[in-house]
Predict the structure.
Amino acid sequence: MENHNEFKLVKGIFSPEDAKEVLFKLVNSKIKFHQLEKFSITERNMGDIDYSEERIHELEAAKIQIEEQIALAQKENRAIKIDGTIVLELMEKYNVSR
């Protein structure tokens, strides 16, 4: 079995409004995941929440940058091309750090 695969999750040309919806749903989903992970770790008092806090910060910053690009596309009456590839690679051992 191959240990490296790529999947095209998002591919196409979108209006700024549609691009915003697609991208924000992805980013917001990841933010929610890390918020729940942080809550779970805190409730169980079993681990470090630094990684989840860092990812939330990075994802919120990405949202701001996406919003700026979308606003520019709207201002210039342009479409947005999105090519989002996910790469999965099987690793030797499961590690809970994300």
